[in-house]
Design brief:
This protein has 30 helices and 25 strands. The protein is α/β, with parallel strands linked by helices. It has an 8-stranded mixed β-sheet. It has a 6-stranded parallel β-sheet with strand order 16-15-14-17-18-19, sandwiched between helices. Strands 7-8-9 form a 3-stranded antiparallel β-sheet, with helices on both faces. β1, α1 and β2 form a beta-alpha-beta unit. The protein starts with 24 loop residues before the first strand and ends in a 5-residue tail after the last helix.
C-alpha cells in the first residue's frame, strides 16, 4: 500500500498525526454556479479570496455565501494573474464565454501552477459547451426537474437551487482531488453532469428496465415513504427498510387503535404489503392525522422509527440537535446586527465548533492577501489517479455510504467492501431495488451503479471470528467509511479510539443520520426524514399547498459529497482523524440563506403562484413550458435584457420594454403567450433554437432523454459501459470531476457478493487456502 504523500509544502512526505499544513489558499472566481464550492472550502479552513464582495446579492445571500472570505479589488488581467500566482487552488465558474482563466486556442489553464477548477453549465467540451443556464435550466437538463411536482402540473426542481449547489460540492471535491494528487491541473465540472449523477434511479430505471420514474407529488417509487398530514402540520416517514420498521410501526398503530385490518397475517408479507401500498398509506395517514407533528416525531424517535416533522428552514437555528453539536455559524461584521447573526453551518466539524466567521471584508489593493507572492505549489509522489495507493475499508450500505466509496474508487482508491447475506443491503436484496426484470442480489441494477470499482469481501459480523478478521484489516487501510447507527462499531471494539490503537493514522468516516452525539443521536433516518428535518421538504410546497417532498434520495448524495470532501481534507492534511458526519448538518448546509432571510431580508418578494411554481424574483420569464407531445416540457429563463431581446426576436410577447420590472408587471401575459408558442415545438429542437440565440433553455429531461437522446452527454461519454458477469453490458452513471492530469476511471463492474473474499484475505492478511476453506465451512465468510 502506497503512503499518501503530503499535498502541500507544509505537509510531510508520509501520513502523520502532527501539525496541519498551512491553510489551502483559494482564489474564488465563482458566480452562483459554484458559490457552494467556495463556501465548503471556507468550511474546511481554506483561506479564500474573491475579487469582488458579492455584487448584486441581497444581505442574506451575501452573508451566507461569502462570510469567512476576503476580497481584493482587481483591475485587469495582469492584476488577476498576479493574484492567481499566490493561490494553490483557483475555483472559477460561469458560462464558457465568460471564463477568465483559460488560454485562448487550446483551452488550457492560464495558471498552470495551481489546481484550476472550472464549473460551467455543460462542461468544457462537447456540442453544448457554449450553452448557458441557471439552476432551473440546469436542473432540467440534468433530470432533477422532471422528478418534482404533481403529476397533473408542470415539473419543478428541488428548492434552494440544489442543482448548482450539487455542482459546487463536486467542484470542492475536484479541488481537493487535485491537491491530494500532488499535480497542478485543470478540473472540468459540468453542472448538468453533477445533477445527472444525483438522481438515484431516474436514469438507472431506464438503463435496466426501459422505463423511467414519473413525478407524483413526492411519493417514493421504490420505498414506502412519503409526507403525511398531521393534526397541525406534516410529517415524513414510512415503513420500508428492515422488517422492524413495519412491525414496530404496526405495534404502535395497534396501541392507538388505528391499525384497522393491517394486523391480518397477509400484511406481514413485504411483497403483499407493497402491492397494497395505497391501502396501507390510507391507514397510516389516518394514524398520523391524530397527532401533532412534533409529538409524533418525538415519539417515533423514542421508538427508533424513521419519522420526522416537516419544519420550515428558519427553524434550523433553534433545532436542539444542531445547537447541541455547535453546528450553527455566527457571522459578525459590517452591515450586520450587533452581536452578529446565526446561520446554518458546514457539513462536518473541520473548524473548531462553535464556528464564528467575519462577513466578507476588503483587502486594500496595496496589500497582498498572501505573504508569499508565489503559490507554494503541490507536491507528492506522481500518480496516474488521484487516490492511487489509498485503501478504503467500506462498511456501508444502501445509498449515502456507497456513494462515498464509489467516488473514492473512481479516482483510484482500492475499495474493500465488507458485506454479508446476514446483513442484507436492500440495494442488493430488496426486489423493489433490483430494477432489472428477473434480477437477483448479484445483478441488482441499483447496486450495480453505486458499487462499481469495488472488491467484495463476505464477512458474517454476527460471529466473533468475522469481527476479528474485520479488525485485522484495519492496519492495512487508510480510510474506513461506515454508516451504522451510533454505537455499533464500539460494540465490536472498533470505536475511533480502538481503531487508532490498530492504525494511528486511520481516517474514520462515520455517517449517522444526525451525528454521533446530541439529543437526537439515536434517531433512525431515511432521506425523506432528513429532508423534513432540514427544511428542504417544507419548501417543496406550491403556494397555498402542502409540502410534496422529493421522489429521490437527494439528501443521501448531499451527505455523501460532504463525506468525500471531509475524507479528502484529511488525506490532504496528511493525517488521520474521525469525521463525525451528520447527514442532517450536510443537508442544512444546502438550504442557502434561508435561515438568514427572515432576519436580514424583510421584504423578500415571492412571485410564485400555484399555477406558476417556478417563477423567480430574478428572471422573467422563468418557468417550465409545455412542448409538443405528451408531457413534454422545456425550461426557459431570461435574466437580462439581452436575453429578452433575443427571445422576442423569436416569438411575439406582450411587453416591449426589456426592463425586469416591466416584464414582471406583464408576467401572466408573457407566460401565457410563451406557453402558446412552445407547445407547438419539439422540446429538443426548441431548446437548441433558444440556446442558439443566447436564451437559457433546456429540455426537462427524463431518464430516457439522459441516456438515449442527449447528444452532449453521449459526446462526453457520461454513460460508459461495463461488462458484468451476470447482467452483461450495462451503462453506468459517469464521473463528475474530470481531472486533466489524473483522470478517474470506471474499471470494474460491481462485484458479486463475496467475489473477492479469498483474494483480499490472502493478499492483505496472508491467509492460505486451508484457513480460508475452514472459515467458509464455519460460515464466517458468507
Amino acid at each position: 500500500m502506497e503512503a499518501v504523500a503530503g499535498a502541500l509544502t507544509g505537509a510531510g512526505p508520509g501520513r502523520s498525526a502532527g501539525a496541519d499544513p498551512a491553510p489551502l489558499r483559494v482564489l474564488d472566481l465563482t458566480d452562483e454556479l459554484a458559490y457552494q464550492g467556495a463556501r465548503l472550502l471556507v468550511g474546511i479552513g481554506a483561506d479564500v479570496v474573491r475579487i469582488e464582495p458579492g455584487a448584486g446579492l441581497g444581505p442574506a445571500a451575501r452573508t451566507h455565501w461569502h462570510a469567512g472570505k476576503r476580497w481584493v479589488p482587481v483591475r485587469g488581467a495582469a492584476e488577476l494573474d498576479e493574484l492567481a500566482r499566490g493561490a494553490d487552488v483557483v475555483l472559477e465558474s460561469g458560462p464558457v464565454a465568460r471564463l477568465r482563466g483559460l488560454q485562448e486556442g487550446d483551452g488550457t489553464s492560464r495558471w498552470p501552477h495551481a489546481v484550476h477548477v472550472v464549473v460551467t453549465p455543460f462542461g468544457l467540451t462537447g456540442p453544448r459547451r457554449d450553452w448557458v443556464g441557471d439552476d432551473l435550466v440546469l436542473a432540467s437538463a440534468g433530470g432533477m426537474t422532471w422528478l418534482g411536482g404533481q403529476s397533473d402540473a408542470q415539473p419543478k426542481p428541488p428548492p434552494r437551487e440544489q442543482a448548482v449547489q450539487t455542482a459546487g460540492a463536486h467542484a470542492a471535491i475536484g479541488a481537493l482531488l487535485g491537491v491530494v494528487s500532488g499535480r497542478p491541473q485543470l478540473v472540468d465540472v459540468s453542472v448538468q453532469e453533477a445533477v445527472a449523477a444525483t438522481l438515484e434511479t431516474a436514469a438507472l430505471t431506464w438503463i435496466h428496465a426501459g422505463r423511467f420514474p414519473v413525478r407524483n407529488g413526492g411519493v417514493y417509487e421504490h420505498v414506502a415513504h412519503r409526507i403525511f398530514a398531521a393534526a397541525d402540520g406534516y410529517v415524513a416517514g414510512g415503513y420500508s427498510g428492515s422488517d422492524r420498521m413495519w412491525t414496530d410501526l404496526l405495534a404502535w398503530m395497534v396501541e392507538r387503535g388505528e391499525a384497522g385490518d393491517l394486523t391480518e397475517a397477509c400484511w406481514g408479507d413485504a411483497a403483499f404489503r407493497w402491492k397494497g401500498r395505497a391501502h396501507v398509506d390510507e391507514l397510516v395517514q389516518r394514524f398520523a392525522a391524530r397527532w401533532p407533528a412534533a409529538e409524533l416525531a418525538d415519539e417515533a424517535r423514542a421508538r427508533a422509527l424513521p419519522w420526522a416533522e416537516v419544519v420550515a428552514p428558519e427553524r434550523l437555528t433553534v433545532n436542539p440537535q444542531l445547537r447541541d453539536r455547535g453546528a450553527l455559524v455566527t457571522v459578525t461584521g459590517e452591515g450586520l446586527p450587533e452581536g452578529g447573526v446565526e446561520d446554518v453551518g458546514f457539513p462536518w466539524a473541520a473548524l473548531p465548533r462553535p464556528v464564528a466567521l467575519e462577513a466578507v471584508r476588503e483587502v486594500p489593493r496595496t496589500e497582498s492577501p498572501w505573504r508569499e507572492p508565489e503559490g507554494r505549489g503541490l507536491r507528492g509522489r506522481p500518480k496516474s489517479r488521484a487516490l492511487q495507493g489509498v485503501r478504503v475499508l467500506d462498511l456501508t450500505w444502501v445509498l449515502a455510504g456507497p456513494y462515498v466509496t464509489k467516488q473514492l474508487g473512481e479516482h483510484g482508491a482500492d475499495i474493500v467492501k465488507v458485506e454479508s447475506k446476514h446483513r442484507q443491503d436492500p440495494t442488493r436484496f430488496a426486489p423493489s431495488m433490483h430494477l432489472r426484470p428477473g434480477a437477483d442480489p448479484d445483478d441488482s441494477g441499483y447496486f450495480l451503479n453505486f458499487n462499481r470499482n469495488k472488491r467484495s469481501v463476505a464477512l458474517n459480523l454476527r460471529t466473533g471470528e468475522g469481527q476479528r478478521l474485520l479488525r485485522e484489516l484495519v492496519p492495512h487501510c487508510d480510510v474506513i467509511v461506515e454508516n451504522f447507527s451510533p454505537g455499533v462499531l464500539a460494540r465490536w471494539g472498533m470505536d475511533y479510539a480502538s481503531l487508532r490503537e490498530l492504525n494511528p493514522d486511520v481516517v474514520l468516516v462515520s455517517m449517522a443520520g444526525v451525528g454521533q452525539t446530541g439529543p437526537w443521536r439515536k434517531a433512525v433516518t431515511f432521506a425523506d426524514t432528513l429532508a423534513a428535518m432540514s427544511g428542504l421538504s417544507s419548501e417543496t410546497r406550491d403556494p397555498g399547498g402542502p409540502p410534496q417532498g422529493l421522489t429521490f434520495g437527494l439528501g443521501d448524495m448531499v451527505a455523501a459529497n460532504a463525506a468525500v470532501l471531509a475524507t479528502l481534507d484529511l488525506l490532504a492534511r496528511g493525517r488521520g482523524g474521525h469525521v463525525d458526519l451528520s447527514q442532517l448538518e450536510a443537508m442544512a448546509a444546502t438550504m442557502g440563506p434561508a435561515a438568514l432571510e427572515p432576519v436580514l431580508d424583510e421584504d423578500r418578494p415571492d412571485p410564485r403562484t400555484a399555477e406558476h411554481p417556478n417563477r423567480s424574483p430574478h428572471a422573467v420569464p422563468h418557468g417550465v413550458y409545455p412542448a409538443a407531445g405528451n408531457d413534454r416540457w422545456v425550461a426557459v429563463s431570461v435574466t437580462d435584457e439581452a436575453q429578452w431581446r433575443s427571445l422576442t426576436r423569436l416569438v411575439d410577447l406582450p411587453c416591449q420594454d426589456g426592463d425586469l420590472g416591466a416584464r414582471r408587471a406583464r408576467e401572466d401575459a408573457i407566460d401565457a403567450a410563451l406557453a402558446d408558442w412552445t407547445r407547438g415545438h419539439d422540446a429538443h429542437k426548441l431548446a437548441a433554437l433558444l440556446q442558439a440565440e443566447g436564451v437559457p433553455a433546456a429540455v426537462v429531461a427524463t431518464g430516457r432523454d439522459l441516456v438515449e437522446t442527449d447528444e452532449h452527454l453521449d459526446a462526453r461519454g457520461f454513460y460508459p459501459v461495463l461488462d458484468h458477469p451476470l447482467a452483461g453490458s450495462v451503462r453506468h452513471e459517469g464521473i463528475v470531476a474530470r481531472l486533466a492530469a489524473t483522470p478517474g476511471a470506471l474499471t470494474d463492474p460491481a462485484p458479486l457478493l463475496g467475489q473477492h473474499t479469498r483474494e483480499v484475505l490472502h493478499e492483505v492478511l496472508g491467509l492460505e487456502d486451508d484457513r480460508l476453506d475452514a472459515l467458509a465451512a464455519e460460515g464466517v465468510t458468507e
